[in-house]
Amino acid sequence: MLSSFCIQAVFLLMCFGLATHAIEGNETYRLALLDFKAKITEDPLGIMRSWNESVHFCQWSGVTCGRQHQKVTVLDLHSQQLVGLISPHIGNLSFIRVLLLQNNSFNGEIPQEVGRLGRLETLRLDSNSLDGEIPSNISSCSNLISLTIGFNSVVGKLPEELGSLSMLQFLAVQRNNLSGSIPPFGNLSSLGKFSATQNNLVGSILDGLGLLKNLSYIALG
Ligand SMILES: *[C@@H]1O[C@H](CO)[C@@H](O)[C@H](O)[C@H]1NC(C)=O
Ligand SMILES: *[C@@H]1O[C@H](CO)[C@@H](O)[C@H](O)[C@H]1NC(C)=O
Ligand SMILES: *[C@@H]1O[C@H](CO)[C@@H](O)[C@H](O)[C@H]1NC(C)=O
Ligand SMILES: *[C@@H]1O[C@H](CO)[C@@H](O)[C@H](O)[C@H]1NC(C)=O
Ligand SMILES: *[C@@H]1O[C@H](CO)[C@@H](O)[C@H](O)[C@H]1NC(C)=O
Ligand SMILES: *[C@@H]1O[C@H](CO)[C@@H](O)[C@H](O)[C@H]1NC(C)=O
Ligand SMILES: *[C@@H]1O[C@H](CO)[C@@H](O)[C@H](O)[C@H]1NC(C)=O
Ligand SMILES: *[C@@H]1O[C@H](CO)[C@@H](O)[C@H](O)[C@H]1NC(C)=O
Asked: What are the record keywords, sorted (predicted)?
């Protein structure tokens, strides 16, 4: 009697668990987005209000999921006057292709965990208040096509590792406080536009960049 009740209870729990999973999709993404929200300290336009439990996270403002699976593929929160840190949980959105956070007031460092986003094609962080160094881990985003970090307060060197981003077409890091020399970027064979003005970058640039066959626009100094 008791054991049969237990079996039924376990069965019910399993069904409930499966149902919850079907409704909520991948819990990992939900938790990642909730942590992202938790690190936002000011939201004057109230965009994050829609990020609540009454609707599925695929319906939250700025979130786009893939058609078949509940995997976040786009997070677009640009120009929302948001203030706060960028949560390291962002690294758990493993299917994200487009991450647009430009023109806000995100501060603190760019989390190293972005390096876990192997499907990321567009990463826009420009026009925020980010500081710290550019994580060399971004070089693990091997599908990156566009990387913009301009108009922040990042310091240190341009990581040499970025030179392995063979798909990268657009790289903009202008108006920061980067220093040191431009690394050998000869492998950035897709690079069409590179902007690095208003930093403290020094040294010979043509060494690496001269090899880039697709380069049509370059702004340095
Ligand atoms: C939750 O989000 C929905 C839209 O997604 C919105 O209509 C509703 O007002 C929100 N609830 C709260 C408590 O903010
Ligand atoms: C930046 O964001 C502000 C506030 O949302 C908006 O008014 C402005 O048009 C945006 N600028 C650009 C270049 O997108
Ligand atoms: C998500 O990312 C954070 C920070 O990188 C990590 O601590 C956490 O264990 C990850 N996994 C899940 C399932 O939330
Ligand atoms: C949920 O997402 C994590 C991180 O991408 C992945 O490892 C895991 O397999 C996913 N689980 C399901 C059931 O899709
Ligand atoms: C840096 O990127 C590597 C490769 O994707 C990853 O294994 C590692 O977890 C990342 N570091 C952090 C702190 O997320
Ligand atoms: C450039 O490519 C060559 C050949 O694939 C490789 O040996 C070298 O390590 C790469 N350099 C960088 C900076 O990624
Ligand atoms: C930029 O860096 C220099 C030297 O590293 C430092 O003296 C200066 O205060 C920095 N400027 C900003 C705006 O962070
Ligand atoms: C070369 O760069 C341009 C942008 O300036 C881009 O549209 C094009 O796709 C790039 N070509 C290759 C082969 O990557």
From this structure: Leucine-rich repeat, Repeat, Signal
Evaluate whether 167 touches 188 at the Cβ level (below 8 Å).
Answer: no
Residue ID of nearest Cα to ligand 4 atom 12:
26
Q: How far is the CA of 120 from the centre of ligand 5 (A)?
A: 14
Domain with 116 in it: 2-156
- Nearest atom of ligand 1 to the alpha carbon of 49: 14
pTM of the model as a whole: 0.84
Helix (H) or strand (E) holding 170: strand 170-172
Strand order in the sheet with 105-109: 40-42, 83-85, 105-109, 129-131
Give the position, in ligand 8's atom list, of the atom nearest the Cα of 190. Answer: 14
| Ligand with smallest separation from the Cα of 82 | 2
Q: How many domains does the chain have?
A: 1
